[in-house]
Amino acid sequence: MNQMRSLTCARCGAAFECGSMTGTCWCAAEDFRLPMPPAASTEDCLCADCLRKAAREQGALSTTIR
Predict the structure, then answer these.
(1) Of 17, 23, 4, 24, which Cα lies nearest the Cα of 46?
(2) Which of 3, 9, 41, 65 has its CA 20 to 30 A from that of 34?
(3) What is the pTM of this model?
(4) Cα separation of 7 and 20, whole Å?
(5) How far is 40 from 19, CA to CA, in rounded Å?
(6) Which pLDDT band, with edges at 50, 70 and 90, does 66 fall under?
(7) What are the extents of the domains in the chain?
(8) How far, in Å, CA of 53 to CA of 14, rounded?
(9) pLDDT tens digit string along 17-28?
């Protein structure tokens, strides 16, 4: 059964929804791709703000965001 996952951001603790199980997650629409955490990691998905911040830190996103 495909459904949204309710998650807590691994970095800031914000609640958000992940559609990776449905194939329609908001992160797929972003202009950049970052690697997923290693399988042994306790870190899960990031909220939109933290994902964009991580992309900027890795040079994958310009300093201006939408």
Answers:
(1) 17
(2) 3
(3) 0.70
(4) 11
(5) 22
(6) very low
(7) 5-57
(8) 14
(9) 988 777 788 888
Determine which of 2-6, 7-11, 59-63 has the lowest per-residue pLDDT on average: 59-63
CA dihedral 6, 39, 13, 61 (to 10 degrees): -100
Amino acid letter, residue 18:
C
* Mean pLDDT estimate for the chain: 80
Q: What is the pLDDT of residues 43-54, one digit of tens each?
A: 778 899 998 998
H, E, C per residue of 10-54 = CCCCCEEEECCCCCCCHHHHCCCCCCCCCCCCCCCCCCHHHHHHH
- CA 2 – CA 58 distance, rounded (Å): 32
Torsion of CA 53, 57, 59, 62, to 10 degrees: 40
